[in-house]
Amino acid sequence: MEMTFSFSDRLVLLFDCWSVHSPTGLALSVLVILLLSVLYEVVKMGKAKVLRRALLAVPPTFSQDTLLGPNEGDSGDGGGGDSEDSGGQEREAMQGRWFRYHVGQTLLHVVQVVVGYTLMLAVMSYNAWIFLGVVAGSALGYFVVYPLLCVGYGAVASHPIQ
C-alpha cells in the first residue's frame, strides 16, 4: 500500500468489498465520503443542541447536590411535610430530564466517534480524491449546519452588524 497521496481511480476503501476500479466508482465513493463528512458536522451540531436543551431544562440553581440528593447528615427543616415531598418529586423529575439528555448526548457522541474514525480511516487510504471529499464535506456540513446552531442561541438577533 502506498504511503503518499495519489490521484488514482483504483483503491480499496475501508473494507475489501469496497474496491474501486473506475472513475465512476471513485466518484460515488467520494460522494459517500462527502456525505459522511456532512453527517459528522450534523452530529456535532446535534450534540450542541442537546446540551443547550439540557442546560435550559435544568435551572442554574440546580446543583450537583440536587442531582445526587441531600447529604445523609442533612436533616432539612425537620418538618417532614408536603414541602419535602414536592421537593423530592421535583428533584426526581430533574434527575429524569438530566438523565435523558445525558443518554442522548452519549449516543450522539458514540455516533460522532464512529463516523470520525471512519473518515480518518478513509483518508488513510492516501487517495487525494477521498481526502478532498472529506474536506469538502466538512466545509459543506459546517456551512449548512452552523447557521442552524446560531439561530437557536439568538446570536443573530443580539449582535446586529453595524
Automatic annotation (TrEMBL):
Keyword Ion transport: yes
One example GO MF annotation: copper ion transmembrane transporter activity
Subcellular location, record wording: Late endosome membrane; Membrane
Species name: Gallus gallus (Chicken)
UniProt keyword annotations, A-Z: Copper, Copper transport, Ion transport, Membrane, Transmembrane, Transmembrane helix, Transport
Protein name (record): Copper transport protein
Encoding gene (name): SLC31A2
InterPro entries named in the record: Cop_transporter (IPR007274)
GO cellular component, as recorded: late endosome membrane
Membrane topology value: Multi-pass membrane protein
Family indicated by similarity: Belongs to the copper transporter (Ctr) (TC 1.A.56) family. SLC31A subfamily.
Location of region: Disordered: 66-89
